[in-house]
Amino acid sequence: MLSLASQTRHTIAVPTEAIRLDALRRRYGRVHALDGLSALARAGEVYGFLGRNGAGKTTTLRILMGIVRADAGEIHLFGERVKRVSVADKRRIGYVSQDQNFYPWMTAQQLGQFVASFYPAWDAREFERMLALLDVPAKQRSVELSGGTRTKLALALALAPRPSLLLLDEPTAGLDPVARREFHELVSEVVRERGVTVFLSSHLVDEVESIATRVGIVHAGRMRIEGDVPWLRESIRRVCAPAPCALPPGFTQVRADIWQAVPEHWAAAQWPEGVTIETLSLEEIFLAFARSGGGSAVVQ
Amino acid sequence: MIRALIRKELREHWVVLCITIAIDAFMLTGFLVRAGERGGRFSGLLEWAGMLGALTALVAANRLFVREYAGRTQLFLEVLPIGRPRIWATKWLFGWSYMAAITVAAWLASWLRALRTEPIASYDALRVLLWVGSFMFVVWSFATMAGMLGRHRYTAWIGVVCIASFVTYRGKLNAAELPVLDLLGPHVAMAHAPIDWSKLLKTWALAGGFCAASATLALAGSGAIASMLAQKMTARERVFIVVFGVVGMFAYSTVERRRSKPPYAISAAVSVATAHARVGILQGGGITDAAARQMARTIADDLEQLVGALGLDSTPAVFVLPKRGFDPTVIERAELDEAEGIVLRAAPDVVLSVLRTEVLRAALADHTRQRALREDRQVLADGFTAWWALRAEPSEREERWLRAAASSVPVSVSTLTRWLETQERVGACVADALAFATMDVLRRRLGADASSRLARALFPRPSDDVRVLFEPKPAALLAGAGVTWSALAAEAEQERQLARARYAAELARVPQRTAAIDVKHTPRQGTRVEVGMLGAPAYWALYTVLGPWAGVQTALSRLDIRAARATLPLSTSRGARVLVALETEDAVLHCPLRVRAERISLP
C-alpha cells in the first residue's frame, strides 16, 4: 500500500495482473478525457471502475479495446506492455458496451456466426448455451430485441470466445432490477468457474459493491482512489468531532469530516474526548471522492 | 475474417446492389440501342459510364461506408479482433470489385453488340476497357472519399458539379474536355484512342489521392473523424450550407460580368453614324444608294432620340440586309453568337414604319436583356416602339388607329396583360395597332415628361445578377405614374370605339370573311386538318405543331392558298396539338388581317 504525491505509480510487476494502466492521457479537442489515469486490475478478480458520467470510464475501456489510442501513458495487458492493443490481444478480451450497435437485420444466431469467424477459440456450444441460459431468442432480428435482451446477447457474444478478460462498460444501464441481478449472477459465475478477469465500469455503486472485489474511483480523468473494498472501508472514515481537531500524522483529509489513512493508523490514533469515528459505505466513499477535486491518488 | 466481412456485406446489401445492376443493365441496353441508331462503336458504353457510373458509385459507397457509420454499426465491427485499416480496405476493394465487375460486363456487352455490325480487334476493345475502367476507378475513389464525409457527402458531389460547371463556363470548355471526363472522349467511343500513359497516370494519381483521403478520414483520430462526420447534420450546418450556397450564387452573379462581344460590322453597307447609333443598309435587291442612305438616316435618328428618351449609353450597330422574296411586312432577325449588333433581313420594298418599329423593338429588347418582351409588359414595349417609330408620321398613326378599330377583340385588362394570347388571336398587324393605340392613350393621359419617366422605369437596363428578381412589376410602375391597367384598358377601348365611329366608312369597306378550320379523320387518309376561307380569293394558313410547353411565339409554317379549301401538309401523331391561323391581305387596312386562329387537339 502506498500513497503517491504525484500521478506516477511505482509498482512492481506482478505476474498475476491482468490490466495495468500507467498515466494514460487522452484528449478530445480541448477536453481532457483522461488526465494521467492509472489503474491495476489483478487476474481473476472483478474490478469495479467507478466514476461519474464523463469521468473517463468509457474512454479507458475503449483504449483497452484498441478502439481509441491513448495520447500518452502505458498499457500492460496480462503482464505485458502493449504499445497498441493488437488483434491477438483483442481475441483474449470480451467487451460489452453501453450501447449495442448490432446489425439490425441480423438474428442472434447470425450475429454469433459472424462474430465466430473472428475468433479461432469461438465456442459455438457455449454461445448456444448462453443464449438459452439468458433467454435470448436465437432467430429474432436484433432490432426486434429489447434493450435488456440485447445486452444479454452482447454478453453471450463476449463470453463465447472464452476470453481471459471481460470489459463491461455500464452494461446494466438499461436493465430492470431482475435482469440486472441475473446479469450479475452470470458474471460472478463466469469469474468463479473460468477465472476471467472482469473490468466493470459503472456509476452504480451498489452494482459494483455487489460483485467487485477491487474498486477504483475515477474523477476528471484521474484515479482518485483504488483498492480492495474492505481496505477502502477501513481506510476512509468519517470523523465527527465537537470541536476542530488536528490531523494526526499519516492522515489525509478527503473532505472536512472524511479522513483517509491506512487501517493501522486508524487503530493507533489517539482521539480527543467526544470524537466518534464512523465507517462509511462504498457509496459514501464514492461521493466523497467523486465530489472533491484535486488531491493525490490513493492506491492500495 | 475478410471472407466473413465480405459475406456480411453481400447479405446486407445484395438487394440494393442487384437493383443497381438491373438499372445499369436496363440503361445500358437503352444506350446501346441508341448508339446503334447513331452509329458509334462504344458510345453507348461511354454514355452509360458517364451517367450511370457516378450513380452506381454513389449508391455503392452509401451502402458500404455511409450506412456503416450512420448506423453506428462500425462501433460493433471495431470491437471485433480486426484492424480498422483492414475493415476499410476490405470494403473499398469489395466496392471496387463490384464496380469493376459491372464495368467489365457493360464493356463486354457493348463489344459483343458492336461486333454484330463491324469487326473490332480485341486490342482496340481492351483499350476502351482501360479508358472506361480508369474513369470508373476515379469515380469510385471519389465516391468513397465523399462517403467518408458522411453528412457532407452530397455537398461534396454538388461541389464537384458546380466546380466543373464553373470551369467549363469560364474556360469556354466543353464538359468532355475536363480532366477525367476526357477519358470518355469520342476517340474512345470509336475505339481509336491510343493509350496515353501520361493522361492515365494522372488519372490514377487523382484516384490515389481520393483513395488516400478516404483512408485518412476513416483512420485518423482512431476513426473519430468519420464517426463525427456520419452524424446527422445539425440545423446550424443546414442553415450554413443553404446560406453559403445562396450567398455564393449571389456573389458570383454580382461579380461575374457578361462577356462583351465585339460590335458587328459590314464594311460594304451604306452606313450612317450618329453620336450614339450606327446603321448600315446593305445595297442590293433594287435599293439605291440614296434610298439606303435615307433609310439608314431615318433609323439612326429614331435610335438617337430613343437614347435620349430612355437614357441609354448607346445602341448596338444595326444592319439591314435586303432579302428578295420576303413580304414587305416580314422582318427576320439574325442570331449573332460572337458579335454585338442587330442584323435584320427584310424585303427590298419593306414597309419602312414596320422596319423602324422592329429596329426599335430589337434595340429595346437588347437594352433590357429581353426583359421588355416578358408577357406582363410586352404590350407596353410593342406600343412604345410602334409609337416611337410613328411619332412624326400623322398619316401612319391614323392608319394604326384604323387597324385598332378593326380589331375583333376589344381592349381589356386581360387583352393587355395576356398579350401573347391577344397576338395569337388578332395577328401581328392588328396587335401592333392595339399596342400603339394603348400607348398613344397612355402618353396623352400622362404627358411627354411623365411618359418618358415611365418608359425609363419600365425598360431599364436590368441588373446582371439575382437583383433582377426584385425589380418592380409593371402594374406597380403604372400605379406609380397614376394609372392602372383597368383604367388604361377602359380609356383605350373608349378611344377605339371613337375611332370605329370615325372610320365607320373605311371599316364598312373591309370585306366580311369567314374562315373554317376542320379536323377530319378517315381510315384511309388518317387525320387531316382542312382550312378554308370565304370572301378572300387568296389567303394563307400559318400553322405549327405545338410542343407541351410551346408558347405562341413558335415559328409558324406558311401555306399560301388560292382555293376555297385546302388540307394542311401536316404529319402528326394522334393527340398532337396544332395551332392554325388563317390570314389574308386586307386592302383597306394595308396589312395582313388574321381572320381566325385556333388551337386544336387532333383526335
Q: How are the SSEs placed, and which strands pair?
A:
The complex is a heterodimer of chains A (300) and B (603).
Chain A: E1 2-3, E2 17-28, E3 31-42, E4 46-51, H1 57-64, E5 72-77, E6 80-82, H2 87-91, E7 93-96, H3 108-116, H4 124-133, H5 147-159, E8 165-169, H6 177-194, E9 197-202, H7 205-211, E10 214-219, E11 222-228, H8 229-235, E12 236-240, E13 252-253, E14 258-260, H9 263-268, E15 276-279, H10 282-291, E16 298-299
Parallel strand pairs in A: 4-9, 4-10, 7-8, 8-9, 11-16
Antiparallel strand pairs in A: 1-16, 2-3, 2-5, 5-6, 10-11, 12-14, 12-15, 13-14
Helix pairs in contact in A: 3-4, 4-5
Chain B: H1 2-38, H2 43-70, H3 73-79, H4 84-117, H5 122-148, H6 153-170, H7 186-189, H8 197-219, H9 224-230, H10 235-255, E1 270-273, E2 278-281, H11 289-310, E3 318-322, E4 331-333, E5 342-346, H12 352-367, H13 375-389, H14 394-405, H15 413-417, H16 419-446, H17 448-458, H18 474-480, H19 485-502, H20 504-509, E6 514-522, E7 526-534, E8 539-546, E9 557-561, E10 565-567, E11 577-586, E12 591-601
Parallel strand pairs in B: 2-3, 3-5
Antiparallel strand pairs in B: 1-2, 4-5, 6-7, 7-10, 8-9, 8-11, 11-12
